[in-house]
Design a protein that fits this description.
heterodimer; A: 198 residues; mainly alpha; Rna Polymerase Sigma Factor, Chain: A; 8 helices; B: 82% helix; disordered C terminus
Chain lengths: 198, 174
Amino acid sequence: MTEEITWILRAQQGDEDAFTCLVQVYQRPVYNLCYRMLGEPEAAEDAAQDTFLKVYQNLTRYDRERPFATWLLSIAAHHCIDKLRRRRFLSFSIDKDDENQTEIPDRFAPDPETEAVKQQECDRLHDLLQSLDPLDRAAIILRYWHEASEVEIADMLHLTVPAVKSRLHRARRALARMWQEETPRLQAERKPYESPAF
Amino acid sequence: MNHRPFEDWLLAENPLTPQQERELTAHLQICPSCSSLAEVSLALRTVQQAGPPAGFVSRFQVRLAAQRQAMRRKHVAGFVVLAGSVVVLSIGLGWPTWEIAIHSPVDFIGSWLVSLTNLWASLQVLFHAATVLLRVAPGFVPAYLWGLVLFAFTGWSALWVVSFRKTAKIWQGV
């Protein structure tokens, strides 16, 4: 933490190496947020890079009273929400391509089969996330992928705590509805050698 | 089917008593809607973070350098355009004046003094006219019209503040 503050202070004075250290530490959470928000690895890389550039340019405005991670993820979330709104406005059709997705496997996974099922569910959830409203999606990602509290999410997304709660509930209900609708189709598609999800 | 209180328990994600757990398990056997919610909750609790492809930091450094260079180029271009405009305008607009100033400096200074005197006199007249207008105008305008103007101005200001707060991104830093 002290090291982080030192990097921030040095970066605020124009030290690029210090800022590189911050990028090194936060590249994964920022990329993950962008990837879950935008759904594609290329768009996520682009958005994550843009986020760090934005942060670098506005670092002098950073308030040290606030946790750096919260400020950084807030910028990333808003950047992605803006991108999604623009994308919706321009009504581009986006082809899904998950080939370059880099998930870190759980080292303590009991067996490959369980791991494969877990991965399958994660992919399924990732696909369903793309149907949610951008702000609801951001709330879900921050809550479950980044383990942010409702207060932190409210701070990052500039919402009230009750609004965050309501968005989380609504988003989870919507995910469950889509999950339920998809289940019969997935069961029909499942090959005989594959294990059931539950 | 009545989902209460099971849906609330699932959404709240609070620890359940053994009795509540038994009731929930029994409900999940017969309710596909709550069962899906439970499956989604379980899946959300086991999610993993995706990491960027290798070399993210190096790509960022390249991008930062490129952006810095682009900014520098933009600043230089802006300065060149500004300086060029100043030079062109000074030559174009000031040429006749320079000719007079070079050939007869006394006439040039005299004409400038006359212009300044005329400007000062015009300003004085304008000020006097405005003072008279302000003294006379309130008598012609009824009081309710002043109230209406004040009300409209207040409303317009409030609307501006509200719309600004709604549309502007008021978040720290950016």
